[in-house]
Amino acid sequence: KKQTPPSPPGPYGLPILGYLPFLQPNLHYNFTKLAYKYGPIYKLRLGTKLCIVISSPSLIKEVVRDQDAIFANRDPPVAALVATGGGLDIAWSPYGPYWRDMRKLFVHEMLSNKNIQASYLLRKGEVRKMVRNLRCKIGEPFNIGEVVFLTAVNVITNLLWGGMNGGGKWDRLGGEFREKLSKLMDLFGKPNVSDFIPCLGKFDVEGIEKDMREVLSSAEEILDVVVGERMKIMKGGGECRGERRRDFLEILFEGLTQKQIVKQDSVLGGTDTTATTVEWVMTELLDKPHVMEKVQQELTGVVGVNNIVEESHISKLHYLDAVVKETFRLHPPLPLLIPRSPSQSCTVGGYTIPKGSRVFLNMWSISMDPQLWENPLEFHPNRFLNDTRNFDYMGNNFQYLPFGSGRRMCPGLPLGEKMVMYLLATLIHSFEWRLPEGEMIDLSEKFGFVMRKSKPLQAIPYQRLPYLNLYE
Ligand code: HEM
Fold this sequence. Notes:
Elements: H1 27-38, E1 41-46, E2 49-54, H2 57-66, E3 73-74, H3 78-83, H4 97-110, H5 113-118, H6 120-135, E4 142-143, H7 144-161, H8 168-189, H9 193-196, H10 208-235, H11 248-253, H12 258-262, H13 265-287, H14 289-303, H15 318-330, E5 340-341, E6 346-348, E7 351-353, E8 358-361, H16 363-367, H17 413-430, E9 431-434, E10 445-446, E11 452-453, E12 458-463
Parallel strand pairs: 2-8
Antiparallel strand pairs: 1-2, 3-5, 4-12, 6-7, 9-12, 10-11
Bound molecules: protoporphyrin IX containing FE.
Protoporphyrin IX containing FE binds near residues 270, 333, 404, 412 and 416.
Keywords: Heme, Iron, Metal-binding, Monooxygenase, Oxidoreductase, Signal
Subcellular location: Membrane
Main location: membrane
């Protein structure tokens, strides 16, 4: 008789609530501590939901490579279902034809090599605008993450529907929209009892659904205006600002309704990950002046002293690339990636994983594993120089997956990587950075859908080289 493999080990919990009352807010840390006790694959019952936590490269490979098709489904939290109209966006829609079509449009059209190259002028314009704004703040402390976020939002919304920040009207809407988007991302990450005890769903005990609906209705009002305006132009047969680059909206108009377009929140989520990464890199560099000095030297050698950074310089910035990679290791923006859910019962590591369970891939714990990394708690960019182990972002080394892996891997990778490097190279080449008087570096993190710093980085820019007028 064929025997069913056993269920993974795991802690016991209370009746009905399971392990829910014992969960701590820093979930990645909590899950890592449990792995010390129960091993690299264990189960947790949170309310009625069976969760599986995996934290070894070989078991992660079984999920995202060997059984990728089975694990390509998501198990969206209530907040995400509310935000995406029941899963109309790319990140939360179930694995199937709708997701495939959306993702194909996104990857082959919006983020095709041709479109990314054609949109360089747009990125250049936004990055220059950022430097001009920073010139007015020389000697003053300000929030780096916020400035970078605005630049990333402008680039991505421009790629999506072009021109949101082109005139006074879009500038105002863009600022408001940024606020809503941050709130929306925070709500994705908040643990919600309704996710784990569905019969409590209608009571919305923590008010997350209510908050989400409020944020959404104002965010969507803004999107409706933008999308509606563009639909009018398209229906009138008008040329979109005479540009040759087709933006995502134009492409989407070919097959989707306005409602489906407005629900592309996950695409916009790319702005939060980009800004958070830049903020973490700047924090690590301000904490380690010798590393900052090496990055500056590299930039001076590659870009020169009387010149401004161009995207063509990026491929020559090997040390900065290693600094970014090491930052992704120590502070992965999505420490548990986006949870998967098997579409049929299957076996991982010799254990049964039931259909519909929520599977967390704990990349944070892998990043901190002393068996896999020498001195894992220390910041050593050199470990990524002269790398022979494929520590790139392509999702083939299961010890290092900042952009995920398999069918559900981040489709925004080509843009995200470019933006992070270009923004950092410009910020560091143009300015000398210091902390405000009496301020200490704070490296603590706050768990969320995107893992941000618990205290935003405040830093002061000083003019570094005499060429800043080139940005005028
Ligand atoms: C530093 C930048 C970024 C990082 C670190 C990052 C990381 C990730 C990760 C870890 C995932 C989950 C992958 C998985 O489940 O295996 C993901 C998914 C996704 N990302 Fe990114 N991302 C970044 C930038 C972007 C950008 C710029 C965009 C859009 C322009 C974007 C759009 C998406 C979308 C749509 C998904 C869902 C894919 C799906 O479910 O099919 N990301 N990202």
